[in-house]
Amino acid sequence: MSVKAEQFPFPFTEDRYAYSNNSSLQKPARSVTMTDRYLEEIQLKRELLQANHQRCFRSLPLSLESQWEAMRRIFNELAENEPEHFSFEKRGNEYRFQNLLLGEEERFKYRDLSSIERQPLDIAGRHVQEDLIIMGDRHDGLFLEAGQLCFPSNWSLTFVLGMDFKSIHTPVPGITHKDFIGKVERFISRIRQNEAWERKNWSMTISNKLDTPLETYANWGKLRLQVTDENVGELVHLRVEVQRLLRLPLTNDILFTIHTYLLSLNDLIRNDLWLKRLYTTIQFLSDDIAEYKGIALYKNELMQFLEKTLSEKGISL
Ligand code: HEM
To answer: Which residue ranges make up each domain of the chain?
Structure first.
């Protein structure tokens, strides 16, 4: 599902790419946002949750307090920022959230599990385009304690449930170099209550498929072998995740949200600056990162396509 180019959060601010803590403080603090893909993506999420609930939702019992806090926070944000689509009312301990776009409502008594049929994060995630993760902030680090994850980029919630922040990042090449990931973890541990930070992560994917979990790699991974000089512009998509980190004030845990955007190369190259930046980024990408992001298999076709387009447009580097 591609988004319109105007809504696409193009990630490259320089011509070369290196892992960096490219986080910026958000004012006002937001953990969720909407695009014009809302209805399609919510429908897809619901289908995935229906068919593969165990894969898409996981939690540890100690995450429940943070889940309640996250749900209330998300419903508050939606009602405040999109009042024409959502409302959220409180009477004593009883809450009513209305989603006018879907014609649905959620009623619950705060922190009363008997008043809800699903866990709070599993309810909240069904109303937003973002994947939602709770990172428990414990005395010895950050741990992944709950998640509703429908659109992962080749990772598995089941595999990382309960894992600490550094271990989660072990598959990423070079991420421990100069203690990069240790510094990121210390940065997160210093985020203050109600503060939200945002960063962009990027990768490439084949087709406009948002759900690429590790568990179904056998189905979608092989699409990378189908890229040819003729179809590269249509098949290959830049995949950008806008990730937000918000400190929940009561539990002191972190709500980590991931909003995934896709844009086909054919749409991307309409913007000359984007075309140039993508070309130089891929050109200087190290082999291990190209391999990790799955680009190595079609890098030749990709580079030839970008070079041809640059020359047709008369753009010099
Ligand atoms: C606190 C919430 C976070 C969670 C739950 C999380 C989780 C993950 C996961 C599951 C992966 C994929 C690992 C794999 O291939 O198996 C990943 C990749 C990565 N993460 Fe995080 N992450 C978080 C925050 C951050 C932050 C704040 C940064 C940097 C400032 C960061 C940097 C990266 C990088 C650079 C990659 C490699 C992505 C790529 O090249 O495609 N992560 N993360």
So the answer is: 5-312
